[in-house]
Design goal:
By secondary structure, this protein is an alpha+beta fold. Helices cover 45% and strands 27% of the residues.
Length: 146
């Protein structure tokens, strides 16, 4: 068998497998659409992962900080409301991060978690229009080279 035939056969099988997988997945959409939407969260908490903050030294980018946080919601029954606007909350928190709310006031090229946590609560409550977020819990922080 020539190489071109083998490649064509492999491509055809791959395409058939992908088509079968897509058909299988799409066949469940109508059933899923008939069921109620349920946000899977911890009671009273909403995770926000993958936030990035630039850290500067002498007005030049030194490194990035990668942060995963959890929002503590005051009323556990309203977690779904928070999940529905989570992209807007994430956007507002990212804007705040890039306004240097996490940069230390003493000029050290590091990240001020206390300042960031306070700013994230204000940003989330601003998007929600009321005091729904009690506090921000930091799940992980990592330094990334710029």
């Amino acid at each position: 068998m020539s190489r071109a035939v083998k490649i064509t056969l492999a491509f055809t099988l791959l395409l058939a497998g992908a088509l079968g997988a897509v058909t299988f997945i799409l066949s469940n959409f109508e059933r899923l659409a008939d069921e109620d939407f349920v946000a899977e969260t911890d009671p009273g908490f909403v995770n926000v992962a993958g936030l990035t903050a630039p850290v500067s030294l002498d007005r030049a980018l030194d490194h990035y900080v990668l942060i995963d946080i959890r929002l503590e919601i005051i009323d556990e029954d309203r977690v779904t409301e928070v999940v529905l606007v989570l992209p807007r909350i994430r956007d507002e928190i990212m804007r705040e991060l890039h306004r240097n709310s996490g940069v230390r006031a003493d000029g050290i090229a590091s990240f001020d978690l206390l300042r960031f946590k306070a700013a994230a609560v204000v940003a989330a409550n601003h998007v929600l229009g009321e005091q729904m977020v009690r506090r921000v819990l930091v799940l992980s922080v990592a330094r990334a080279v710029a």
